[in-house]
Amino acid sequence: MIAPNQDPEQIARDKIDSLLVASGWIIQDKEKINLNASGAVVVRYYLTQDGKETDYVMFVDKKPCGIIEAKREEEAVRLTMHESQAEEYAISKLKYLNNDPLPFVYESTGDVTRFTDFRDPKPRSRNVFTFHRPETFRKWLQEDSVRKTFNNLPILKTEGLRDCQITAINKLENSFKDFKPKALIQMATGSGKTFTAITFIYRLLKYTNAKRILFLVDTKNLGEQAEQEFMSYLPNDSNELFTKLYGVYRLKSSFIPTDNHVYISTIQRLYSILKGTELEESAEEENPNERWQPKEPMPVVYNEKIPIEFFDFIVIDECHRSIYNLWMQVLQYFDVFQIGLTATPDNRTFGYFNQNIVSEYNHEQAVADGVNVGHDVFLIETKITQQGATIEKNQYIEKREKLSRKKRWEMQDENETYGANQLDKDVVNPNQIRLIVKTFKEMLPEIFKSEKRFDADGKFEVPKTLIFAKTDSHADDIIQIVREEFGEENKFCRKITYREDNPKGVLQDFRNEYYPRIAVTVDMIATGTDVKPLECLLFMRDVRSRNYFEQMKGRGTRVIPLDDLKKVSPSAKFTKDHFVIVDAVGVTKSCKTDSRPL
Q: Which terminal CB of the chain, N or C, has fewer other CB atoms within 10 Å?
């Protein structure tokens, strides 16, 4: 509790004291100094040899190593103006000591803190959440700063790398050498963003003083996928797998081991750790920005088990959707370099990464290079899809509960008109779904006629197809009608959503086995999930976001060797050179919006 009329400078010092204690420091006054009391002591008002009084001097193992210049709250906007004063104290000789210049310098109001590491080649102050821990200073005093070791990075060996990956890594490493705190890698879906990330992570761990790197995702599914890619990565200058050389750990609880090098986590889990709360695994299954969020979220608080300097770098996968709103607090907590990965940046993304785009490799370039395949579009237009319809008075209609799907019959009291946007959400018209599925079935042999996709019995083999549904209930309706219209069994068409009993197993089968031929999803494989044999996307939901639509289309862009394609689609006669979008809702025609302006 702050007393009324308390001195503003004392208020700032009280806040600074609290931050220091939380970070593991013991605070002493210069009149009662006892450096033997602890290996981590901060002394108030210590004098320089020319009689100037500092605000705080930081001692590690009885040796001075840092200065804190305390300022009242209203000075927060002018903290950079006080850097020269703090630096003057840092290069001064302290009373009774013959010290070298002190490398660690802070200016702080207790609410806003800036830090400069004078071990860096070009020392540059930066905002930090709080003060670094004494054990961190102890390690830092024995080695060069991470920034100083960027020049240790050798010329990139390019064997096994695509041109777009080589460009991204070289430009990113140049960005590091310029000490830019954020960088954005934009690479088309299927061009190897994760492989590129693992390559530069390997180089940072091998050649610089980086100790720990966080690979941040926004769904559990993407975390598991990234973990598999780390486990299978073989550097082009080593005969040992990445995971034999460096520890990789995926966070599954609040426990964080300290002896690994790469940590994979959802942003939701890290947020819960910093808040000190538990997290159900189900909360990691969906993109967090699609879930309801409180208007005034709980702020993250300091956690000594995972201090601000715990990681040296954070690589943010799918950064166009995962780092906004309350989740940004996670990134603001850590004192790190940040690298964003995305195929579809928007203006917010460019703004967040300070417009430092080290790679721009879009889908069109990827198609031209043979890294992606392009697509054809076939339209299925129904009157109801375009205009909606009217339910006539005195008809008995079936009412269904959304979650339990319990049914009851009611007589319609009056005519009720529903719009196209209500279809399959408020109103289900099974005949309209059936018409689309029937038309789709009839179109497929025509769409793929150049390939003559028929099995030994002369029956048309349905290419691997993904249907995008509006809701789980809509997906169930589609599955039932697909099985009926194609005259097939359960395994022919399956649902893949987070709420399925075994979504990973079904997804694995969809990738690698003959069945299912058709998968229906709402959200789980709309973004970020690879299914290379996919040759057809059927849209039965509209999408207003340009980025989300591009992500959904990206599920079909993956290239696959003919032999691998034939393992799941034996009738395939040519290498996959395109995929097909079947548009049953006008998604390719509807207006798409960008996200918020810069």
A: N
